[in-house]
Amino acid sequence: MAKYKLKTKSSAKRRFSMTSTGKIKRKKANLRHILTKHNRNSKRALRKGGLVDKADAPNIRRMLPYG
């Protein structure tokens, strides 16, 4: 039996969530301010979520030890 629990990074638990297949979901960037220079279609595409790249996934899994 483990003697201690691992801590979850608070910043990571706000930014990422897991899918049922184990992939990591994220929100796309560049949708906070100064949106007049973006056209309508690019802003709509940014509203959809994205998945974390396979190369970055191990680091994020380390920050989220319990999923």
TrEMBL record:
The protein's UniProt keywords, in alphabetical order, are: Ribonucleoprotein, Ribosomal protein
Please list the GO biological process terms of this entry: translation
Nuclease recorded as keyword: no
The residue ranges flagged as biased composition, category Basic residues, are 1-16
* Region listing for Disordered, in residue ranges: 1-26
- One cellular component (GO) term of this entry: cytosolic large ribosomal subunit
Recorded GO MF terms: structural constituent of ribosome
- The coiled-coil segments of this chain are none
Classification via PROSITE patterns: RIBOSOMAL_L35
Instruction: Spell out the PANTHER family in the cross-references.
Output: 54S RIBOSOMAL PROTEIN BL35M, LARGE RIBOSOMAL SUBUNIT PROTEIN BL35M
Return the similarity comment. Belongs to the bacterial ribosomal protein bL35 family.
Identify this protein by name: Large ribosomal subunit protein bL35
Which organism is this entry from? Candidatus Lambdaproteobacteria bacterium RIFOXYD2_FULL_56_26
